[in-house]
Amino acid sequence: MRTEGPRRLGDYIRFFLRSSGLEKAVTKPDFHRSWEQALGDVRLIPHTRPGTVRSGILKVEVDAPVVMQELNFRRREIVKRLAELAPDARVKDIRFVIGNFRSPR
Question: Which of 92, 5, 31, 6 lies closest to 57 in space, CA to CA?
């Protein structure tokens, strides 16, 4: 990165993200398909909404505590399937959080 004259902080952040490989985003439609396949249970799909992957942790919103409990039991299995289906996402773990959403399905 050139340092001629004053620069914006955003330029440095973009440079850091690009050089560290953190800038690469997973395309949502492809990742959603992979999420649904990794989940495996079509009854659970409408109750989940995968979000962003940061530092290898996928944040997934769920609409009920019982869904969160079920998915936590299967978390390792889901992570393993995601590694096979969406290796570019680099998911190493999943954090489930209760979200307030209505499924579009």
Answer: 92
What's the predicted TM-score (pTM) here? 0.69
**pLDDT tens column, 79-105:** 999 999 999 889 999 999 998 766 554
DSSP for the chain, written as a single string = ---SS---HHHHHHHHHHHHT--PPPPHHHHHHHHHHHH--TTTGGGEEEEEEETTEEEEEESSHHHHHHHHHTHHHHHHHHHHH-GGG---EEEEEE-------
- C-alpha closest to that of 94 among 55, 45, 65: 55
C-alpha distances (whole Å) from 22 to each of 8, 10, 15, 34 are 19, 15, 10, 20
Q: How far apart are the first and last CA of the chain?
A: 46
CA dist 35 and 80 (Å) reads: 11
Class of domain 25-98: alpha beta
